[in-house]
Amino acid sequence: MPDAAAHLPFYYGSIARSEAEEYLKLAGMSDGLFLLRQCLRSLGGYVLSMVCNLQFYHYAIERQMNGTYAIAGGKAHCGPEELCEFYSKDADGLCCTLRKPCNRPSGVEPQPGVFDSMRDNMVREYVRQTWRLEGDALEQAIISQAPQVEKLIATTAHERMPWYHGNIARDEAERRLYSGAQPDGKFLLRDKKENGAYALSLVYGKTVYHYRIDQDKSGKYSIPEGTKFDTLWQLVEYLKLKPDGLIFYLRESCPNPSMAASAAPAPPTHPSVSKNLGPLNADGYTPEPVGKSRVLPMDTSVYESPYSDPEELKDKKLFLKRDHLMIDEVELGAGNFGCVKKGVYKMRKKQIDVAIKVLKSNNEKTVRDEMMTEAQIMHQLDNPYIVRMIGVCEAESLMLVMEMASGGPLNKFLSSKKDEITVSNIVELMHQVSMGMKYLEEKNFVHRDLAARNVLLVNQHYAKISDFGLSKALGADDSYYKARTAGKWPLKWYAPECILYHKFSSKSDVWSYGVTMWEAFSYGQKPYKKMKGPEVISFIEQGKRMDCPTECPAEIYALMMQCWTYSWEERPGFFSVENTIRTYYYSIATKTENGPKAEDKSKAAFP
Ligand code: AMP
Questions:
Q1: Which of 170, 219, 549, 576 is packed most tightly, with the most Cβ within 10 A?
Q2: For residue 338, with 0-12 CB atoms within 10 Å meaning exposed, 13-18 middle and 19 or more buried, which class applies?
Q3: Is the distance from the beta carbon of residue 389 to the nearest atom of ligand 1 less than 6 Å?
Q4: 287 lines ligand 1 (CB under 6 A)
Q5: Do 480 and 473 touch, CB atoms closer than 8 A?
Q6: Do residues 355 and 343 touch, judged by C-beta distance below 8 A?
Q7: Cβ contact 11:79 at 8 Å
Q8: What are phi and psi of 178, to 5 degrees?
Q9: Chain-wide mean pLDDT for the chain?
Q10: What pLDDT, on a 0 to 100 scale, did the predictor assign at position 43?
Q11: CA angle at residue 519 from 284 to 427, to 5 degrees?
């Protein structure tokens, strides 16, 4: 899982005890000086290294079965950060309280641990093979879904390893290990017939030894009395470094002959993988598979562009043929331009569900021009977290044909499912919005109307930014767009420089992102209560900001406040915003992994 301490400035990752002591020495050896490092022995655990009376102390922090963290004999805490906070107030058995964090010197990043790089490579390979993704689509999938993919991998990764021999009997394991050379440490892993347990068979001194692998109630694996691990492959990797109770450490894998026969890697075992959404519930949402892994954005038909297939790309044009479009009578929504209808668009090889924005026939020319500008902007964008424009159709009326996001606007969804959607679910969705916005920032586009009503859901765990009616493409050398006159503007979402100087940039989109976050974490409430636009402006000018929504985590509120930095020069950009929310999202994905309440709440969303 992502590292729950990755964001802490006093976290050094996988460094040795001696290195930790060097850093503490350099920082002055004052009483209570401390740092945190990764523990190799217990997976997901840490070591707290500290100074008291010019002596070093090292305390192992174990990750418990229920996902909490504790120093042996001490109280449990929901994360390493909370644990350090606790010991800064109360020594509770430590040599003294934690007084001063020994932060990493500038330029020093946390050292990746032996499992971290393996894990990263594995996630990459898994996503590449399972969803056949490459390039940007692959990168975006990894960033947005790493915690979910890691959970999937945890249960299946060993099946792809050459040392995994599946369900073979003990004497067959011996036959395989005795054939060919028999160096010390040659090993294989096999299923035991009884109740899905595993066994490790190992050569030492030309003799084969067999070890049972136990699995505890929380699903962790270990050899009897040995260190516990979340996955079998981590157990094996660890036993390659340390014997941990075995007669010898693991050295050379005895390759599974059936795996060697097929040159290609074992097929992925992801349970859902269908590129279609499948049947929708009556209320338009994809039901969450209960007990199994849920539908990931990459499982849906709208993750990749419909033109990602080179055959289909040949037909990509802004104007679409009317006879390729079937319009349903079902209305998805409405605006002052007209209505949005459901439909199907026929491509070369497939038919796709679409949403069609139909212009009212009696609309003036300006509305029509606005709609064409929106179409031209959207046509240049291609990102999994932005509603894609398929094209424009000029027939009985002007129509914009877009990808379908059948879950509807985020604010409505959250206000109707308040008791069922967890905070971590909202963090996941808002992280996706930040990824879409980071892409816009990179492409030099400003959205100018980012709000929860313009974030549409594909399903409960997949959001896309929509409504580019006010958007602008900036010139290559411009960092902002200057509106000549003020229009019908969503003032409550606008940064001070938009209202005062009509200046719009990615930084003003960041302000709107802050307001959108506020709406999301208050489950779809309207921002600034009953205030009118001009009242909001004077509220902001007085240095006031909206309060933290009741259930909103402090880290998220801190980010909102950063987004509402008065001066746009000092406000963070989306590169930084995405990074901050990603770190928080990964850290809670780690914590809620075994957190009962949170998971229950999200499961109840689609009974
Ligand atoms: P808009 O004027 O773009 O905000 O669209 C009005 C309403 O139509 C939205 O609030 C949605 O309910 C619906 N809608 C717009 N675009 C889509 C889409 N791509 N997929 C599904 N529904 C949409």
A1: 549
A2: buried
A3: no
A4: no
A5: no
A6: yes
A7: no
A8: -80, -15
A9: 87
A10: 63
A11: 75
What's the mean pLDDT in 10-18? 93
Residues paired with residue 425 on neighbouring β-strands, in sequence order: none
Centre of ligand 1 from the C-alpha of residue 447, in Å: 16
**pLDDT at residue 593, as a whole number:** 42
Share of the chain above pLDDT 70, in %: 89
| Residue nearest (by alpha carbon) to ligand 1 atom 15 | 340
Active site (catalytic) residues: 449
Residue nearest to atom 19 of ligand 1 (CA): 404
Determine the Cα–Cα distance for residues 340 and 355; give it in Å rounded to an integer: 6
CA distance 300 to 387: 13
Report the distance separating Cα 284 and Cα 267, nearest Å: 32
- The tokens for 234 are 């981590």
Question: Any idea what the Cα angle at residue 47 is, between residues 30 and 41, rounded to 5°?
Answer: 155
In tens, the pLDDT along 431-466 reads 999 999 999 999 999 999 999 999 999 999 999 999
Contact 414, 524 (CB under 8 A): yes
CA of 331 to the centre of ligand 1 (A): 10
Close Cβ partners of 500 (under 8 Å, ≥ 6 residues apart): none
Closest CA to 373 of 473, 454, 451: 473
Per residue in 81-140, pLDDT (tens digit) is 999 999 999 999 999 999 999 999 999 999 987 677 777 888 898 899 889 999 999 999
Q: Which atom of ligand 1 is nearest the CA belonging to 469? A: 3
* CA 424 – ligand 1 centroid, Å: 25
The residue-averaged pLDDT of 245-266 equals 78
Q: Where are the beta strands (DSSP E) in 386-478?
A: 389-394, 398-403, 408-409, 445-446, 455-459, 462-465, 472-473
Give the distance (Å) from ligand 1 centre to CA of residue 59.
54
Question: Does 214 score more than 50 pLDDT?
Answer: yes
Mutate which of 327, 328, 466 for ligand 1? The one with the most ligand atoms within 8 Å of its CB, which is 466
335 assigned ligand-binding residue: yes
Q: Enumerate domains of the chain plus CATH numbers.
A: 17-111 (3.30.505.10), 155-272 (3.30.505.10), 310-403 (3.30.200.20), 407-605 (1.10.510.10)
Residue 370 gets which letter from DSSP?
Answer: H
Section 270-296 average pLDDT = 44
Ligand 1 proximity of 371 Cβ (cutoff 6 Å): no
Question: Is 208 a pocket residue for ligand 1 (Cβ < 6 Å)?
Answer: no
Q: According to the annotation, is 333 in a ligand binding site?
A: yes
- Quick: pLDDT tens for 545-601: 999 999 999 999 999 999 999 999 999 999 999 999 999 998 888 654 433 333 334
Q: Report d(CA 574, CA 509) in Å as an integer.
A: 9
Q: Residue 485 carries which DSSP code?
A: S
pLDDT, position 122? 81
Q: Is the CB of 423 under 6 A from ligand 1?
A: no
